[in-house]
Amino acid sequence: MSRLIVVSNRVPVPSKDGGAAAGGLAVALQAALQERGGIWMGWSGESSGDREPGPLSQQQKGNITYALTDLTDTDVEEYYRGFANRVLWPICHYRLDLAEYGRKEMAGYFRVNRFFAHRLAPLIEPDDIIWVHDYHLIPLAAELRQMGLKNRIGFFLHIPWPPADILVTMPVHEEIMRGLSHYDLVGFQTDYDLQNFAGYLRREGIGDDLGNGLFDSHGRVFKAGAYPIGIETAGFAAFAEKAANNVMVQKTRRSIEGRDMIIGVDRLDYSKGIIERLEAFERFITSNPAYQNKVTFLQVTPKSRSEVPEYEQMQKMVAEQAGRVNGAIGTVDWVPIRYVNRSISRNVLAGLFRLATIGLVTPLRDGMNLVAKEYVAAQDPDRPGVLVLSRFAGAARELKGALLVNPYDVEGTANAVARGLAMSLEERRDRWRRMMDHLLSHDVSLWCKDFLRDLVAAPSSDRSGAQG
User: Fold this and answer.
1) pLDDT tens-digit map of 371-382
2) What's the predicted TM-score (pTM) here?
3) Average pLDDT of span 10-28
4) Which entry of 128, 134, 366, 462 is annotated as an active-site residue?
5) Would residue 93 show up in a list of annotated catalytic residues for this protein?
6) Which residues lie below 8 Å from residue 386, measured CB to CB, with a gap of 6+?
7) Known catalytic residue: 218?
8) Are 184 and 455 in contact (CB under 8 A)?
């Protein structure tokens, strides 16, 4: 079995007390690395200021070597805050109005990918399999190929992939697509993302769909497919059952005093539809006055990328919106919206998911959205809650028991909340069972195995006959 090298922008290094990083993705990739032996390489999150970063910091844990590099202030500004998060992120989430393209930031993005390649290359052995993650590192394979590496290299995009009309607004769209062609396998979250990718190749005349998931572009034949990421379903379900006895969860249960609880959990980001969700909750209460003082909406939104102006502005907007709604419809003994602007531990969140009658997951655009899957996995099988889910989340392609909504339609979302609260126990169980069965059979470990299986089997030669 070939050794595995995982490359991502950030690396979930185990804590000093030996605890594994939280989160299904980290658990699955660490399991694959532990089984095969390997390296997880990425940015440390630290800056070396104006100085050239020192050598890689390496930490061994079992069969896994965690290899971290610092970046300079300029690198962080141009590669991470600049091109990755102010060009690629908004464009992939269909927000052309927020994309701020600058040639300096674009150059920084490609420069840092070259830097990553040069730091990674000395660690790579001829038979290693390399798995690159997410939009920060699209050009990495091209840089490694330029250095003569012929290893199997796969790429998985965790965020949406936009249609051609949106992608071509980015001045370097051709370079980005050329970068993807240097992988042996390109993985997307949904079949819609894959269709958008194939549609761009066809429309721009730079590639052919050869069938069976094979594509020919820029002189290379490679595979692309949809690999919807899962969670550690059974483990999270057991986690949530145990978390119901958590002190904070018990306090929350007592504090809602028999009211139904609706929960939303999102990183603070304009793609998550939080403003629209608050408006929908207000519309639900005003349209259904019988629910006044009978329901509490808990919105948990940890701060995110607060150094980027759009996120700082959004934090202010969400807080103001929550305050306005509470002021408009709240009473002396009832605060309709509880807005928490900080992180809550995963075990408490699992218990809160189980406590909530409605999981309100309404992003304007999302690659997958694992909160939707965690909400389903956390439910009490005897009295499960109802998932109200945006049709623009990748999870909507799988979770057929959810109430699907258009988050731009405030009234429609409000009506779905009312329908969920009034739903019979029998229908709730039926909807939940269908979703839970799917999540149990399509968990994160299967996702990991499926991708690595297809990467090993993918074609690895281009027209020149060079082995890729």
Assistant:
1) 999 999 999 999
2) 0.94
3) 70
4) 366
5) no
6) 357, 358, 359, 403, 420, 421, 423, 428, 431
7) no
8) yes
